[in-house]
Amino acid sequence: MKKILVLSAFLFISITGAFAQSAIEKELIQLSMDKWQWMSDKNVDKLKDLFDDKAKFVHMSGTWKKEEELEIIKSGSIWYRKANVKDTAVEIFENTAIVWNRITLDAVVRDQVVVTEFTVTEVYKKQGSTWKMLDLTFSSVRDTHTIKK
């Protein structure tokens, strides 16, 4: 009888943990999708709340900090018109999470329309009850690239 109770408790904890992680993964995926929409809409107020004050942004043409990224988005010097997300993977490490998005980005960069394949790495940290983005890195890839899960 004791063995059955211990086994039942173990299974319950395992299943509960799997569902909890799944819910967190869904939350992070939705946050990432919201971020793409906010970038497209140039909604710097929402992005300002999402980006940690020490966040870094790595693009093909340089690396900059939060205020520079917000100004670039606000001014439209880079307009993230549409991120077509093809694949997403999430890894959670306690209160830190990494989200990888495989995207085709339709953007306007310095008045030039560009369509580029990227794998985008987003690093988040749970601060209180909210996730804050610490890093956003664009890696140029071939259209056949896949994210290992």
TrEMBL record:
Annotated signal peptide: 1-20
Statement: the UniProt record of this protein carries the keyword Signal: yes
Record's keyword annotation contains rRNA-binding: no
Protein name: Nuclear transport factor 2 family protein
Superkingdom of source: Bacteria
Gene3D superfamilies, per database record: 3.10.450.50
InterPro entries: DUF4440 (IPR027843), NTF2-like_dom_sf (IPR032710)
Boundaries of every DUF4440 domain copy: 36-133
Keywords: Signal
Organism of provenance: Aquirufa novilacunae
